[in-house]
Input
Amino acid sequence: MKRLLVAALALAAFLPGIEHAQAQTSSLATVKNRGELICGVSPGLAGFGIPDAQGNWVGLDVDLCRAIAAEIFNDAGKVKFVPLSSKDRFTALQSGEVDLLSRTSTWTMARDTALGLSFSTVNYYDGQAFLVQKKLGVQSALKLDGASICLQQGTTTELNVADFFRANKIKYEVVAFDKGDEAIKAFESGRCDALTDDSSALYALRLKLTAPEDAVVLPEIISKEPLGPVVRSSDMQWINLVKWTHFAMLNAEEFGITKANVDEMLKSTNPEIRRLLGVEGKFGEAVGLSNDWAYRIVKLVGNYGEAFERNVGAGSMLKIARGKNALWTNGGLQYAPPVR
Output
């Protein structure tokens, strides 16, 4: 019995040392030693994260992961994509199964304070809306009194719906599903009157209908849905690296730096451009990267505007207007601090 007690005490003394050693191993060091980034993404949401016809992952969230790989390895292909459901995504990040989430996750106070995770930035400003069949004859969400609503459980969607219908004193019935694909199939089969999700997700899900033109997204936006990458809170260097990846893409767009002209921009006399591209200063060192970190991002992935247009904007099937996701110089909310 005495020997068991001694062993238990020795183990208790040893465990904090293990935890301390783990804390000292940075996410960046882990990724470098592994030789690839592991990124948690959507199981398949057009425009944000989905395999294309050749099996290659594409999307706005996917491009953020590729940008991180580009700045670390000078190779945007060194990423392993792990599709995660809404209910499993945060657990996978907490357990270390993935290095970060880039998966249309809404930044909320509860998530930011109670999970041991941090939302580093917002790469897409969104809001929840409703999709209905045109034949229903409804032009406003305020006319959905008594309607059945299909939604994906395990998301902020459920609470937003409850708040909206309660605030407007109208009744509704929830038809909940684990996956977005299940919800859109139920909507198409007539199991519910409306489907609700983030507006961007509704545009993507509508493409899966047999007749997408027969459905319409109602005009009301019933919530704020700031979507962005999520990392573990224990590693400030990694938080900063992910944050400044997005900021670099925004600053590049603001300065007119693109994949096509980034080499020419290295000759610019603009001090802000020279700092961003690593011609002057040593700003990459602050996040454990080489000083050409932002150059690598733009050269291999592009600026934010390029990523937006090809994935969700005019160059995509979704054709979503920039709106709130335009640069601040064009009336939008996308705004990056300076590199200095």
The longest helix spans residues 2-24. The CA atoms of residues 32 and 73 lie 8 Å apart. The two ends are 62 Å apart (CA to CA).
